[in-house]
Design goal:
The complex is a heterotrimer of chains A (352), B (294) and C (282). Chain A is built from eight helices and 17 strands. Chain A has 352 residues and is an alpha+beta fold. Chain A folds into two domains: 225 residues, Rossmann fold (3-Layer(aba) Sandwich), CATH 3.40.50; 98 residues, Beta Barrel (OB fold (Dihydrolipoamide Acetyltransferase, E2P)). Chain A has a six-stranded mixed β-sheet with strand order 6-7-8-3-9-10, with helices on both faces. Chain A has a four-stranded antiparallel β-sheet with strand order 2-1-4-5, with helices on one face. Chain A has a four-stranded antiparallel β-sheet with strand order 15-14-13-16, with no helix packed on it. In chain A, β9 and β10 form a beta hairpin. In chain B, β1 and β2 form a beta hairpin. By secondary structure, chain B is mostly helical. Chain B is 70% helix and 2% strand. Chain C has a domain of 177 residues: MetI-like (MetI-like fold), CATH 1.10.3720.10. Chain C has 14 helices and no strands. The longest helix of chain C has 32 residues. Chain C is globular, with a radius of gyration of 24 Å. Classes of the chains: A alpha+beta (352), B mainly alpha (294), C mainly alpha (282). Chains B and C meet through α1, α3, α4, α5 and α7 of B and α1, α3, α4, α5 and α8 of C.
Chain lengths: 352, 294, 282
């Protein structure tokens, strides 16, 4: 049980900055998800916390102790790797025990912890098998088990689910969430999958280009993306970002905050029918209709700018590809941005 | 040069880990090689009291000595003959083994073991077969009207060492050709068959060109083998004779250095040999870097 | 095979059988010779069928040797060869594992230099630097000793490169996981890396055992005491006298004995042997 505190953490590879100054406070028992595109520095950040990358400048405190100079083994952390990194020549039991043995844990205690972890993860029958005899999902569990038996101050997850197929990934995602709730171990979790990030996180840290774009609960981040980057990254299909100049009924735009030149509208906030109250409308033609089961995604090319926008509507609308269409959105659903700063033009979002 | 993404931070440990290898290398490889280079530029007086630095005199003398030029020629003839003979036999056998399916492993086992026979033992085996008094080969050749005595006839002696050296190398070449053949995609063969190419045409137009990295690699390895690994073989069959007909470079450097005790000349010969190995290694690494994939 | 042509299959087997005959015949002849009495070689042609003296010839060579030819009993030489081949193989593997580990898992000043020094050994076979190397070994007082027979041969660029290649394919995360699990460098080496290299070590052992066994020039130089003779060089001494007195049966018995161990290794560990051979040349 511990807090993690990152203070102005930086990492350069030669002259190339990978992490450009990160401040983050993780509360005890919290699950923080670091999310962002590849190359955003999220994995580097996690590996710095683990002690697998050197720190260029800044501080890392785990449980109040500065660990910047400490070996990974001295940091009281456990890590789950993307490819699981199970020792191929050791049995599952051997894998679970290895870290405890290296620490000189007494035999009885080792057995108790291994048994407990095996019970939690339901891998008891697998204990004497070798990793190559296990399925992907089972290996994943063993990798988790190796972290659990250590009873560390913090779990570090480096894209632990990305080697699993889609169905298993959803299932394991739920299990990781339940497990973390149950053990209440402070966790840092890295993923590039924004859906995984949304469903797992107590708080999300959206990263881009070595910097934090936004920190907040999943709903905060979804409801009020602080920057254009976050707006485009979180949500699927992504938010439509439209230049103000392409909006058809210009008179309604007067009510947008000053300096707004881009507005963001989520696909589910665009409608075919005119809306009550203050709203804007966009004219275009239907380019493509994607029925995806319970809802449909309609790709519409705007007449004014030629830009393509997506709306998601329930059911299967009767639309012809190529037909003219007018889209409507309530003013309350519009996210105003300035393209120069990349930030919201209404009240700023606190990054805590 | 590549390392791991994360590395161990220890400062002294890597040196300790490298120490044994480096110590052996420096004491038994680098230092003696340096000594050879040094003495190749020196002359020692007959009593070994004084050495004089004489620039390239040893080399100049070496290359003007008919015995050495003869040795160079014999080495070239020997290396080229062994390479061609052994590689063509091996390729034939590899292609054949690649065509059979069920008995594949049995044939392979029967063909690969000569790799483990020491060159000097190979020499003795063939020396026995070609022994002018009791050997089976001279007996059969007499039936053909050929009188065999490699102790007198230099050409026959060369033929004997070439055959013996090639025999030993068949297994090695065979294994690499088989590996090379297996890496030729079967689909290409099938496509060519559909295009109407018969088995022989397919081999020469599809398989053989695709095999060229293996062939080139083996070319270098075989030359290297014939030049440097055949000391024992020569020593057991002809002792470099008759009349220096099979006195190849590695044999001569030994004979001159240990039996003739001519340090300066022997050192110069060593240096020439080193340059040859360096050239062969450089060619191998320069052109054969990305070879056949297994 | 794309098409089925009976004559082609026939030809294929014919080629292979001819190949096997070429490869086997010299050894067959040697074996036959080793089963005859010494008088059988007077008649002008070697016998082609086994004779009745096999046990007698082998027994004599194993237990007594031929003292007039300066050859000790073959059993002693076989023992020496075994010791030397194993020491060379194990030594090469051990120091190469260590140096490859240093080069792949650590960064330190002069790493590249160390790599090149090791690389150079590829270009300096013993045949090329015999006299000065002999001088070094003589000066160190290592003539006529197992150390002198083995130590100068155990530097190995090939083995180091092989392990380096293999280590580079070991996932980074394995080492990271081990560090998080509290394993230091030597513990990781012993607990994780060595067990993972088992197959490579075994394959290399087969190749290097053969390498050590067939050494001829080096033992010839550094041993004058027959207690340290290896079988491969001892045979040469025997053969040199065979022309004078017809001891063909005895010489060939020792030839067979000298070939047998490494050949059996190749035949029974064929898979490892092929892997070792192909890997070391990569």
């Amino acid at each position: 049980m511990a807090t993690i505190n990152l203070v102005d953490l930086k990492k350069n590879y030669g002259n190339v900055p990978a992490v450009k100054g990160i401040n983050l406070q993780v509360a005890d028992g919290e699950l923080i998800v670091l999310v962002g595109p590849s190359g955003c520095g999220k994995s580097t950040l996690l590996r710095m916390v683990a002690g697998l990358e050197t720190v260029t400048s800044g501080r890392i405190e785990i449980g109040g102790k500065d660990v910047v100079k400490a070996e990974p083994a001295e940091r009281d952390i456990a890590m789950v790797f993307q490819n699981y990194a199970l020792y191929p020549h050791m049995s599952v039991r051997g894998n679970l025990e290895y870290g405890l043995k290296n620490r000189g844990t007494p035999r009885g205690e080792i057995d108790r912890r291994v048994q407990e972890a095996a019970d939690i993860l339901e891998i008891g029958p697998l204990l004497d098998r070798k990793p190559r005899q296990l399925s992907g999902g089972q290996r994943q569990r063993v990798a988790m088990g190796r972290a659990i038996v250590r009873e560390p101050a913090a779990f570090l997850f480096d894209e632990p689910l990305s080697n699993l197929d889609a169905k298993l990934r959803v299932q394991m995602r739920v299990e990781i969430r339940k497990l973390q709730r149950r053990l209440k171990t402070t966790s840092l979790y890295v993923t590039h999958d924004q859906l995984e990030a949304m469903t797992l996180a107590d708080r999300l840290v959206v990263m881009n280009g070595g910097l934090v774009e936004q920190i907040g609960t999943p709903t905060e981040v979804y409801d009020r993306p602080a920057t254009l980057f976050v707006a485009g990254f979180i949500g699927s299909p992504p938010m439509n970002l439209i230049e103000v100049s392409s909006v058809a009924n210009k008179n309604s735009i007067g009510t947008l905050p000053a300096k707004t030149d881009i507005i963001g509208i989520r696909p589910d906030a665009l409608f075919i029918a005119p809306q009550e109250g203050a709203s804007i409308s966009l004219k275009g033609s239907v380019e493509l209709l994607e029925p995806i089961g319970g809802e449909s995604h309609v790709h519409v090319r705007l007449d004014s700018s030629g830009q393509s926008v997506v709306l998601s509507i329930p059911g299967r609308p009767h639309l012809e590809e190529g037909a003219d269409i007018t889209l409507h959105a309530r003013l309350a659903d519009i996210h105003p941005y300035n393209s120069d700063t990349g930030r919201r033009t209404d009240s700023p979002v606190a990054n805590l | 040069m590549q390392t791991k993404r994360t590395i161990f931070p220890n400062k002294l440990l890597p040196y300790a880990l490298l120490a044994p290898q480096l110590a052996v290398t420096l004491i038994f490889f680098i230092w003696p090689a340096g000594q050879a280079v040094k003495s190749s530029f020196e002359r020692e007086d007959p009593f070994g009291f004084r050495t004089t630095f004489i620039w390239f005199e040893n080399y100049a003398r070496l290359f003007s000595e008919p015995g050495y030029v003869n040795s160079l020629t014999k080495t070239a003839i020997f290396a080229i003959s062994v390479t061609l003979l052994s590689m063509s036999l091996s390729l034939l056998l590899a292609v054949a083994v690649n065509r059979v399916i069920r008995t594949n492993r049995a044939y392979t086992t029967l063909l690969v073991w000569p790799y483990a026979v020491a060159p000097v033992v190979v020499g003795i085996l063939w020396w026995f077969m070609f022994n002018p008094t009791i050997g089976i080969a001279p007996y059969l050749l007499r039936g053909l009207g050929i009188s065999w005595n490699h102790r007198v006839d230099g050409t026959q002696a060369m033929i004997l060492v070439v055959i013996a050296a090639s025999w030993k190398q068949i297994s090695y070449n065979f294994l690499f050709f088989v590996a090379g053949l297996q890496s030729v995609p079967q689909a290409l063969n099938e496509a060519a068959a559909i295009d109407g190419a018969g088995p022989f045409k397919r081999f020469w137009t599809i398989v053989f060109p695709l095999l060229s990295p293996t062939t080139f690699f083996l070319l270098i390895v075989n030359i290297n083998y014939a030049m440097f690994d055949t000391f024992g073989l020569i020593d057991a069959t002809t002792n470099g004779g008759p009349n220096q007909a099979t006195n190849i470079l590695v044999y001569k450097v030994y004979a001159d250095g240990f039996l003739g005790l001519n340090i300066g000349s022997s050192a110069a010969q060593s240096v020439v040999l080193m340059l040859i190995v360096i050239a062969l290694t450089a060619i191998q690494f320069r052109y054969v870097e990305r070879r056949v994939q297994y | 095979m794309v098409e089925n042509r009976p004559w082609l299959s026939f030809l294929t087997h014919l080629v292979l059988i001819a190949g096997v005959v070429i490869v086997v015949f010299p050894v067959y002849l040697a074996f036959i010779a080793s089963t005859h009495g010494s008088g059988d070689f007077m008649r002008g042609l070697v016998p082609l069928l086994p004779g009745p003296h096999m046990l007698e010839n082998y027994g004599r060579m194993l237990n007594e040797g031929i003292s007039t030819a300066g050859a000790p009993p073959v059993s002693i030489m076989l023992m020496n060869s075994t010791i030397i081949a194993i020491v060379i193989a194990v030594g090469k593997i051990a120091i190469s594992l260590l140096s490859a580990y240093a080069i792949v898992f650590f960064k330190f000043p002069f790493r590249l230099l160390a790599f090149w020094i090791i690389f150079i050994t590829l270009m300096l076979p013993v045949e090329v630097r015999i006299i000065p190397t002999f001088a070094v070994v003589a000066n160190l007082g290592l003539l006529n000793s197992y150390v002198g027979l083995t130590l100068p041969l155990i530097a190995s660029a090939t083995a180091t490169f092989l392990f380096r290649q293999f280590f580079l394919t070991v996932p980074d995360e394995l080492m990271e996981a081990a560090r998080v699990d509290g394993a230091g460098p030597m513990k990781f080496f012993r607990d994780i890396l060595i067990p993972l290299s088992r197959t490579n070590i075994a394959a290399l052992f087969v190749i290097l055992f053969i390498y050590g066994w067939v050494q001829y020039l080096w033992p010839l130089l550094v041993t004058t005491d027959s207690r340290y003779y290896t079988v491969v060089m001892g045979i040469k001494r025997l053969a040199a006298t065979a022309d004078a007195e017809p001891l063909w049966n005895l010489v060939m018995a020792s030839v067979i004995l000298a070939m047998l161990p490494p050949v059996l290794v190749v035949i029974f560990m064929q898979r490892l042997f092929v892997k070792g051979l192909v890997d070391t040349e990569k």
